Amino acid sequence: MDTREAYLELGVNPSVSDSELKSVWRRLVAAWHPDRNTSSGASRRMQQINKAYQHIRQLRDGSNESADDDAQSGSKAEQPHASTAPEPDSRGNPHFIKVVLSLEEAILGCTRTLRGHLHQTCSACVGKGRRVFARACKTCRGSGAVRKAALFGWFWNEESCKDCGGDGRHHEACLACTGSGEKKLAYRRRVRFPAGLRAGHVLSVPAPREGEIEIDLELEVGIEPHPLFTLDSDGLLRCEMPVNGYAWMSGRWVEVPTPTGMQQMRLNRSALTYRLGGQGFPTSLRGTRGDYLVKVVPVFPQHSDPEQEALLDTLIARSSDAANADRSQPLGQWQRRLKRWNSKHRATE
Ligand SMILES: [Zn+2]
Ligand SMILES: [Zn+2]
User: Fold this and answer.
1) Fewer CB within 10 A of the end CB, N or C, for the chain?
2) Closest C-alpha to 235, from 186, 183, 291, 275
């Protein structure tokens, strides 16, 4: 950074007083501190502001002659500097917005119209809110100080001129921004969000070639929590749903929710988790959809009415042989041994 750039960065004239320089620097720091300014370019701008301020401070703390030399050589040094390290973006830093999508929108992709306001540093005054002219300040006639009578006019006090801040130049509020240093601009942009965006992804939306505002948008994607589906960090979509315990035991069809609607699924009493291929979250941006895992929770009624009890009794009676059918089961083997032992024992009595 050369001296000219440093002054330009802070939006001040090289003739600015030390105190004015400091107050401009403080105001810029307050405006661009990343703690308060959430735009993505804030920390970079903050670095530039501090670099510029330090550069000028070092010059001023040294001799005045070296500062002038540096300022003059600045124009010479600019040419090679520009070719090796071009300015990142003449339009300024991109505007940062957080956009929250529903899970369905993230899975299928969507189009949204974004509207809002953004504050842009006024280009006419470089954010300073006023302009400093080369001609002398009328109030102090260019001296930067005004005389004030003190103690009943017995002697004079010199005071820094309030109209020019002591630099002796003519100051005027910037007409372009009415002195605020920034311009409030309304924007409206139609944005296509591709399928497969995850929370934390940043989408860059360059400014349209024709438009009232030439500003790039940077959209940080958030995904709304869903009442049914959860998205794992590895991109696997899951759902947990209660099913009728008897329907699960008997392998019936049930309807399960998917991001695109309800779908029939056959239960299986040996499985609690079901993988539905191609129904999940896209495996990559604009990619094919991955798997969707449905975990079923079989639910049995807490209390059965007499009719249900009777039905269950019948079911148990008719299926109790099934448990004993396997002769290799330890319980069956033990029961048969007990029976033989019992009969032998009674025989010897
Ligand atoms: Zn302005
Ligand atoms: Zn003045």
Assistant:
1) C
2) 291
- Using CA atoms, how far apart are residues 77 and 189, in angstroms rounded to an integer? 40
Task: Give residue 81 CA to ligand 1 midpoint distance, Å.
Answer: 28
pLDDT at 211: 57
- The CA distance from 63 to 68, in Å, is 9
Domains 3-75 and 229-299 share a fold: no
In this structure, whether the domain defined by 95-123+181-223 belongs to CATH 2.130.10.10 is answered with no
Tell how far the Cα of 128 is from the centroid of ligand 1, in angstroms: 7
Whole-number Å distance, alpha carbon 214 to ligand 2 midpoint, is 38
Domain boundaries of the chain, sorted by first residue = 3-75, 95-123+181-223, 130-173, 229-299, 306-343
pLDDT per residue as tens digits for the range 96-150: 889 999 999 999 999 999 888 877 788 888 888 888 888 999 988 988 888 877 6
Weakest mean pLDDT among 8-12, 19-23, 187-191, 275-279: 8-12
CATH number of 3-75: 1.10.287.110
Distance 310 CA to ligand 2 centre (A): 103
- The H or E element containing residue 315 is helix 306-325
Q: How many whole angstroms from 68 Cα to the centroid of ligand 2? A: 23
Tell me how far the alpha carbon of residue 142 lies from the centroid of ligand 2, in angstroms.
6
Sole residue written with tokens 């330890």: 330
CA of 171 to the centre of ligand 2 (A): 8
Q: Quote the ligand 2 centre to 224 CA distance (angstroms).
A: 57
User: Is residue 170 classed as helix, strand or coil in its secondary structure?
Assistant: strand
Q: Considering the domain 229-299 in this protein, what is its CATH number?
A: 2.60.260.20
Structure-token pair, residue 78: 């600019």
| Average predicted confidence (pLDDT) for the chain | 81
**What is the reported pLDDT for 275?**
95
HSE value, Cβ hemisphere, 13 Å, CA-based, for 172: 10
| Residue 121 CA to ligand 1 centre (angstroms) | 8
What's the rounded Cα separation, in Å, for the pair 268 and 203?
43
